[in-house]
Design goal:
The protein is mainly beta. 12% of the residues lie in helices and 34% in strands. The strands form 3 sheets. A 6-stranded antiparallel sheet has the order 1-2-5-12-7-10, with no helix packed on it. Strands 9-8-11-6-13 form a 5-stranded antiparallel sheet, with no helix packed on it. The chain has a two-stranded antiparallel ribbon with strand order 3-4.
Length: 214
């Protein structure tokens, strides 16, 4: 199979207003800007808790967000769920990883995910990419799971193949055990090079978050 050339279809334009349809959706769901890019809102945080399976340590994200009220480093909620939205003006989520596994469910729109299997053995890590959308006959996914320790990025695609327009990509993400920013890391350019080598890293560097630290 010929390699897939990945390139953005929409330009990040944070100062440009979203379309009335997108603004209506953001308002209806009470979405807020997400540190990864796009918009989100937490819709559920399970009352049940479990001992944290992760070592206590500072992440590259900790400096960017305030600590959640009531957070204890030794405990995690059993699960958390959010809505997550990419838009034509906020069309991508930069490379990041969570320590916990994340179950994704599509609600509307189309997008592409890029997964770097950083937790696997080998010097040059495996890269996986797939389209999420409604056309399951063509291999588009309605549901996908990203295990902890893997870096992922996502970007918006036109609503129809070979089209130019999109009304956004809306998904749900359920994190098990529940999400905390201390379990989250952005990927830096140097980190990307370490995982993939210089050539492959340069081809995917446009998917790095500006918050990725060296």
């Amino acid at each position: 199979m010929a390699p897939i050339h990945l390139q953005p279809h929409f330009t990040v334009s944070p100062d440009k207003p979203e379309s009335p349809q997108i603004q209506s959706l953001i308002s209806a769901l009470n979405l807020e800007p997400h540190i990864e890019g796009g918009y989100y809102i937490e819709t559920d945080r399970a009352k049940e808790t479990v001992p944290s399976p992760f070592p206590t340590q500072k992440s590259t994200t900790t400096d960017f967000v305030p600590q959640r009220p009531g957070f204890s480093p030794d405990i995690r909620n059993a699960s958390t769920t959010i809505f997550y939205l990419l838009t034509p003006n906020g069309p991508q989520g930069g490379f990041h990883r969570n320590k916990a596994r994340t179950v994704h469910t599509l609600h509307r729109g189309r997008g592409r995910y890029v997964i770097i299997h950083a937790d696997e053995e080998g010097k040059e890590k495996r890269v996986e990419t797939f389209v999420v959308g409604q056309d399951v006959e063509k291999g588009e996914r309605l549901q996908w799971i990203v295990e902890g320790g893997k870096f992922k990025a996502s970007y918006l695609l036109p609503g129809e193949e070979n089209g130019k327009e999109s009304e956004g990509l809306l998904i749900s993400e359920t994190v098990v055990p529940g999400f905390e920013y201390c379990d989250h890391d952005f990927l830096s350019l140097e980190g990307l090079k370490d995982l993939l080598g210089d050539k492959k890293a340069q081809s995917l560097s446009w998917l790095l978050s500006p918050l990725g630290k060296e």
